[in-house]
């Protein structure tokens, strides 16, 4: 195992043939040491970066002594590390959303050791893709390939900066493997924000710190963004997963242009099995649970109780297939699907509209942005509560003082039920001069409150 890692490392640090020849080695032997993998690694390595983040988190008691001596609201500084790759010469970098989320500061380290402060252009929790920007010119740019051209068994290279400077320098490390599967979907775990569907599975080792780095084909082209592994021990067991590069690039373009992803919406909500249910594996089609009134799905004639069996000539076996079809849907795209209604099969085209939450009027309270919860937004966000003010964005001040996050729904302040976003500011202003304020909110289906 140690020998295998040494070989892979030497591939990333391969020395040009003429230098080796100068050391007296035969040219034929020198040439044979260079494989397609080493050439691919050398082509992509200059564009691979380390992404170093610092975030502040609420300090939780870990011992019985902390319960007595840890002051209320105490914070701790947490450092994180991931990888990324440059996609424009002026310094746009793609990485994972889970690498940079909640970061107070981001520093990007290039292969040559230079450090650049970075700013977050945007992040998309649903795809686990984020874009950061450094100020530079003529930076090395990764060559972008096509994940759809991959076949099972193709050689691929995972490259990144595992464990960061614990390895002594900023030179990215390389692991090689094959494409184990394509279009692989992973059942989400409890509390998981990202949706991992149509993923590339590989046995190339993906280690801590590799998140956000590129998965590369033998031509040195990026075909995926390394994201996570499946492991009972926490170590690599050959089950690594990467986001298809087409999805990552689409998200990156939207984040740079708009600061958010302009994702298409059908208004069709399907019944989702529980996380501990095994029934999702054996489904043949997905049952429609709800169709938002006036939505594209409603206009196409789809109704609650129908069963969607096919999307764009691909069978829909379970809800992951359905979510995958919608994840890459852009505004204006047409989703061709077949569904069963009263025993008969119908084929329709559903032209995707803009997400209701993107069209909704926003109310700003400092660095907090709110929109009113409507039936369409409830269906879009899978909210349990049908009224209130949805938190669209929550800046550092809102997170620290109100303990709110994007996706929370404020539904009550003291004894006053919240029915729209504008009401939040009025109610807070009213109660602020009359004593304490208790703010109730829903998060991931659970209800919480904060006093301030």
Describe this structure in words.
The structure is a single chain. By secondary structure, the chain is an alpha+beta fold. The protein has 13 helices and 28 strands. Strands 22, 23, 24, 25, 26, 27 and 28 form a 7-stranded antiparallel sheet that branches. The protein has a 6-stranded antiparallel β-barrel with strand order 1-2-3-6-5-4. A 6-stranded antiparallel β-barrel has the order 8-9-10-13-12-11. The N and C termini lie far apart (56 Å).
Count of discrete alpha- or pi-helical segments spanning 4 or more residues: 13
Termini separation: 56 Å
Quick check: average pLDDT?
82
Could you give the count of β-strands? 28
- The CATH architecture of the largest domain is Beta Barrel
Can you tell me the residue ranges where pLDDT is under 50 for at least 5 consecutive residues? Answer: 1-22
- CATH topology of the largest domain: the name is Thrombin, subunit H
State the CATH class of the largest domain: Mainly Beta
Described by strand count, sense and barrel closure, the largest sheet is: 7 strands, antiparallel
Could you tell me the radius of gyration in angstroms? 25 Å
Strand content: 35-45%
Specify the helix fraction band. Answer: 10-25%
Structural class: alpha+beta
Question: Can you tell me the overall shape?
Answer: globular
Number of domains: 4
